Amino acid sequence: MTEDPWKEQLRLLGEFIRAQRGMARLSLRQLGELTGVSNAYLSQLERGLHEPSLSILKSISDALGMPLESLLAQTGMLPDVAPGDTAVIPDTETAILQDPQLSEPQRVALLSVYRSFVPARRRG
Question: What is the pLDDT along the chain (124 residues), one digit of tens a residue?
Fold first, then answer.
């Protein structure tokens, strides 16, 4: 039985955040102070147990000193892109990410549904 691809991406995201936090020599408590996110929630994110909002991911990426696009690309949630370069993001995903009428939860939900219908992208 294969694991849900979205859950796998959440697990990879958590592992990447944990690794980046370790390389930055930050404890969960320190990252929590920098992001305004509780230690417990950060721990659950690192274990792939929660689906974070874009604002939480942005605060984490800022605290770790990396662009949000890089964090998402490193975990397979976006194709490899240079910071600020949306030219290689598929048009549908770009439209979802840039639509000002959508809330963050709506964007996450739409991206999740959209990605469930298209073949998974694998990085080389």
Answer: 456 777 888 888 898 899 889 888 899 999 999 999 999 999 999 999 988 988 899 999 999 888 888 788 777 776 554 545 545 445 677 777 777 788 878 877 887 787 777 665 432 2
What's the token pair of residue 65?
A: 């000193």
Model pTM greater than 0.90?
no
- Hey, what long-range contacts does 52-55 have (CB within 8 A, 24 or more apart)? 52/13, 53/104, 53/105, 53/108, 54/104, 54/107, 54/108, 55/104
Q: Report the CATH number of the 5-117 domain.
A: 1.10.260.40
Delimit the domains of the chain by residue range. 5-117
